[in-house]
Fold:
Amino acid sequence: MPDKTLNQKFARRSFLDFLLGASSVAWLGSILYPVIRYLKPLPRAGPSGPTHLTREELAKLEKEHFVIVPVSGKRVLVLQNAAQQILALDAKCTHEGCTVQYLPGESAIWCACHNARFDLDGRVVSGPPPRPLPKYVAERQEDGGILIVAERRQSE
Ligand code: FES
Structure:
């Protein structure tokens, strides 16, 4: 009988040791993960030359109607308008460089920093940006993929 109690006590102690160890590892992970993620540089530079959207980027484009992708070291906003056309514009606001986003319900590109709006050709509609967003060439390919060419065109 005392042997059984001793075994139960040992099993309980082992279980508590395991729980303590697991929670210590989880706590350490919750501290280290954000630090490592902060220190790891974000992928800014895409490949030079034409850029194919990845499967994940295509899925995001399909779901949210826009995606921001790296093209030759620049962030490019790729959007699908109401007519299902693919357009690509520089995602960097020409005012102070914030990242713009597409508002599908308003058919507009919006910069949240100073509430600026651009039309889908990149022209400034309202707000402080001094210049339009430069445009990129975007092509839908036969296999359903999307190709962004780094050749920029200034919006008229
Ligand atoms: S940075 Fe975009 S409006 Fe100011």
